[in-house]
User: Fold this.
Amino acid sequence: MIRYMEELSPGEAAGIKKTIQDLFRQTCILQVKCDPVTLVQRDNPRYRILANHREFIADYLSVLDCELVHDPHEHIFRIRGEGMPVDRMTLTTTRIMLILKVIYRDKIMGEGLNATVTSLAEIREVGGSTNLLTRKLSLQEWQDALVMLKTHQIIELPGAIGSLEDDSPIYIYSTINIFCASAELGELVKSYTEAQEESEEFTSEESEETIYENVSE
Assistant:
């Protein structure tokens, strides 16, 4: 592994190191990302690095008890395994993620791939209609949830979270399909609306496993 890195240019080696760091921080790397200011889609250089050095990066991750997974349908690379760092996702954040999936599914079915933009106002509206949000969330709860979802490449936000308005565009990435597939989504939503403890916590990996295994396409 050391020899492989030594044979690369300093720029290429630095790019690989930063890409691996990003994988551990955000779980996945998308081929196309939205500019956080304009929400215009652009090619992601991190994805190209993964594609060009896939075998080396996979071998490196295997030493850390992690597996590099490529999803050609969703055009992403992601990691999984016991060596992954654990983030905690509150039940409120998980509910917001489910709301985003409902919005994403309905818009893809009704308006096509260019309609995956939502807003705080729409999230609250759908949350109320599905009973996933039955109370007014604090500003801190919104910020914590949006930061978590942005970090794991589920959404993209235009600018600072604290400056979001009700109608500010929030882009939903197709990675929402990894954390929550479409089949039996109604049953999954129902199970979360019946949860009794608002403070219960889940790890992001546990949430992915529970949702993905029980609601897989």
